[in-house]
Amino acid sequence: MIKLTRRLAAVAHLVREDTILADIGCDHGFLPVYLLQNGKIKSAVASDINLGPLNACKAIVQETELESKVKCVICDGLSGIGENECDDVAICGMGGELIVKILSQCEWIKNSKKHYIFNPMTHPEILRRYLCENGFEIGKDIIVKEGKRFYSVFEAAYTGKIADHNEIYYYLGNIDNFEHKDYFRHLLNYLEKKARGGNVSDEVISAFKGLL
């Protein structure tokens, strides 16, 4: 049985049951294999832009005898995946700016039946802003500690409603657990540097100081 890291376990927790998952940037394919082994999803499409990781994914799919359940596709983002091939979409392990690019290049993402799970490794605020300005609503929004690093994991769905949030929201989203003080200290340090160039408001800085 596959065991997931805390980061991927948080992603797996947000995947809906009895769905078909598209795992974008699948790397070794641990996420879809884990979900299938635990009976949470019906099947999966695993994609990666690089042949090396995709071959690693194919190997573990064969090893676990899940070839009939996992379709492996080499493609850039969602470009090789059809609208009817998935219900839930996980895009993990890449920067927020790249995730925005992947979403903006896909014609069918604005479908209220789809459910998205994101794990931006950098700039989650850029991804949150894009989602809110393009009719998506963010749901659960959590910070996961794995080793010495912290990761942002959150879900979203298309509603068609354009949300006009303040700047603070794009950095904090719907996070309601602020126990990981080191994460917020690191983010405050980053924001204070940006503020020197006039790129972050005093209101945002004050909000983060209030969390510490």
Give the helix/strand layout.
Blueprint lengths: L5 H9 L5 E5 L5 H8 L5 E6 L2 H13 L6 E5 L13 E7 L1 H9 L10 E6 L3 H10 L2 E11 L2 E10 L8 H6 L8 H16 L5 H8 L3
- Proportion in β-strands: 15-25%
Number of helices: 8
Task: List SSEs in N-to-C order.
Answer: HEHEHEEHEHEEHHH
Radius of gyration: 18 Å
Find the structural class using helix and strand composition: alpha/beta
Major sheet details: 7 strands, mixed
- Runs in which pLDDT lies below 50 for 5 or more consecutive residues are none
Number of strands: 7
Q: Helix proportion of residues, in percent?
A: 25-40%
Written description of the protein model:
By secondary structure, the protein is an alpha/beta fold. It has eight helices and seven strands. Strands 3-2-1-4-5-7-6 form a seven-stranded mixed beta sheet, with helices on both faces. Helix 1 packs across helix 2 (30-37) and helix 7 packs antiparallel against helix 8. The longest helix has 16 residues, at 181-196. The N and C termini lie far apart (40 Å).
